[in-house]
Amino acid sequence: MFAFAIRSLAQGVLVLVTVAFIAFSMFRFVGDPVVNMLGQEATQQDRQELTERLGLNDPWPIQFARFLGNAAQGEFGVSYRQGRKVSDLIKERLPATLELAVLSAIFATGLGVLLGVYAAINRTGFVSNVIMTTSLIGVSLPTFLIGIGLIYIFAVELRWLPSFGRGDVVRLGWWSTGLLTESGRKSLILPVLTLGFFQLTLIMRLVRAEMLEVMRADFIRFARARGIADRSIELRHALRNTLIPVVTIAGLQLGSVIAFAIVTETVFQWPGLGALFVNAVQFADVPVMSAYLMFVAAVFVIVNLTVDLLYFILDPRLRSGRRVAKGH
Q1: Among residues 218, 221, 217, 215, which one has the least CA distance to residue 239?
Q2: In angstroms, rounded to a whole number, what is the distance separating the alpha carbons of residues 114 and 17?
Q3: Assuming Cys at both sites, which of 107, 166, 241, 291 could form a disulfide with 76, CB separation 3.0 to 4.6 Å?
Q4: What tens digit of pLDDT does each residue of 6-27 get?
Q5: What whole-number distance in Å separates Cα of residue 317 and Cα of residue 16?
Q6: Averaged pLDDT for residues 223-252
Q7: Tell me: the pLDDT tens digits for 283-304?
Q8: Helix 182-215 to helix 143-150 angle, to the nearest 10 degrees?
Q9: pTM of the prediction?
Q10: Taking Cα atoms as reference points, which of 310, 309, 316, 325 lies closest to residue 7?
Q11: What is the dotted CATH code of the domain comprising 86-282?
């Protein structure tokens, strides 16, 4: 298992370096940061001085090597737009994005598994048909449209929930959370539903399909032949085997939640990393854009590594397969 973890970690590092190279290459063609920072009225001398100070006159390989070296230390340079360290900007916005993403993932995974199991056990019932129809709608609709619809219903028409912003937050050291205030909790509801709805429907359909497949397996028929109660078979035997592939998909979806949060944050004006990235694109703020993509790539790498290890632990066939291979 140690060799498996080392190999996966090496692949993750290679992915991060590749993402950094692609991001740094592409963003060099997104506008002129010097013009955005100084404006059109700046003199040529001012532009040259700023270009020299930012290191933009250095050859591209040197700039990229400098970026990688700083990134390895958790530093991503200085924002061209705000003149502040990018690491400080990310530190300020990270709590909002992680709070939104984690709550969305919990909502999608927990409710998705429950509804998927119910739809598999009662696949011919009216409620199951409603669940599957709703899941089809959730898979088909884009995230921004779901957010706009929820805003119209619950913020405009019913006026139950706020339509934008994070509400009041409480600071715990450098971390900030809205879970400890009433306005913060209300502000979380619509973004969490919007971001988690697609993942919810995907996990729900996956759980249902996997559980129906497991229920047709031989060991389930043997369990029934032994007289074991149906509820015990469904929840102890079938569900346990169903959750193995679900762990993989749910883990990958956690990375997707953080990556796709940019759309939800834009719709709800959520002060997270997604909004920071959108503003950086408008002002050709290359350090911020590169740091954001590096962050998303790091999340995917960490999640994939964790899922691979969990899959290796949960699925005995992988371990037995390796032992058999060593025996040969």
Answers
A1: 215
A2: 39
A3: 291
A4: 877 788 888 888 888 887 776 6
A5: 30
A6: 74
A7: 777 788 888 888 888 888 888 7
A8: 130
A9: 0.80
A10: 309
A11: 1.10.3720.10
